[in-house]
Amino acid sequence: MNIVFIYPIFLFSAYFLTAGNLVWKDTELVIPSDYGQKEVVALFHFENRSEDRVVIGKIQSSCGCTVPVLVKDVFEAGESGVIRAVFTVGDRVGPQRKTLRVQVSGSTEEIVVLTFSTTIPQLGEISPRMLLWRKGEEGVEKMLSIKIAPDVELKADIPSEDFPFVVREIESESPNKVVFGVTGPAEIGASKFEFNFLFSHGDSIEKKKVYLLLR
User: Fold this and answer.
1) Largest Cα–Cα separation, the chain
2) What is the DSSP letter of 197?
3) Per-residue pLDDT tens for 7-36?
4) Residue pair 163/194 in contact by the 8 Å Cβ criterion
5) What's the pLDDT tens digit per position in 106-141?
6) What is the per-residue burial (b if ≥16 Cβ within 10 Å, else e) of 184-209?
């Protein structure tokens, strides 16, 4: 399981952001992500610098994909702790921003908002994802442009039966961009087909569909 932790580095002394009963090293983090990563973990460190006991109550996440983890919820004066936010990547790609709302009780009642963001890289992108042939376009070849991330392998997964299209690689415009041509059938009747491109990088595989419509 690939997990990224982020630890802010302070050369002289930790700089804390004051938020009522607690002080925080950070309330907002930016975390890098890599291909095939299953989870991203944000660590929010805090310290009770008040003279009172502080209780952390409900922690509300902005989505079900992000789970807050807190080992204990009562912190005496001078104690430190950390809230872990575990974000399950799943099939999400692109920029992601997640928020925790933390209920803190001490000398006062307050809500502290913790935020982290990350960008989940894609192994590849296909444009367009759908091709359409109408009457009169029998045997016409249409183009797919595919962007590939560095060190990613690409394979067209073509159905072996009842697939009336011809798919071929036309040219490589650059090491990270490929053009494929898809030639439609000799006869066109209302129907729908699909096939996949497989993008692989190490143990990570992304499968992206292309939809082919006949009208």
Assistant:
1) 82
2) E
3) 443 333 454 666 568 999 999 999 999 888
4) no
5) 888 899 999 999 999 989 999 999 999 999 999 999
6) bbeebeeeebebebebbbeeeebeee
Of 182 and 35, the structure prediction assigns the larger pLDDT to 182
Helix/strand/coil for 69: strand
Question: What digits encode the pLDDT tens for the residues 190-202?
Answer: 999 999 999 998 8
Asked if residue 115 and residue 13 are part of one domain, the reply reads yes
Assess whether 105 and 182 both reside in one domain: no
Q: Helix or strand or coil: residue 206?
A: strand
The span from the CA of 201 to the CA of 123, in Å, is 7
Q: Which of 56, 64, 103 is nearest to 85 (CA)?
A: 64
Distance CA 148, CA 115 (A): 31
d(CA 50, CA 42) in angstroms, rounded, equals 25
Residues 77 and 97 occupy one common structural domain: yes
CATH number where 104 lies: 2.60.40.10
Q: 110: closest CA among 182, 188, 21, 45?
A: 21
DSSP, res 25: S
Considering the domain architecture, whether residues 11 and 90 belong to the same structural domain is answered as: yes
**Type and span of the H or E element at 120:** strand 109-120
Q: What is the pLDDT of residue 5?
A: 46
Q: Which residues are within 8 A (CB) of 162 and not within 5 positions of it... i.e. 6 or more apart?
A: none
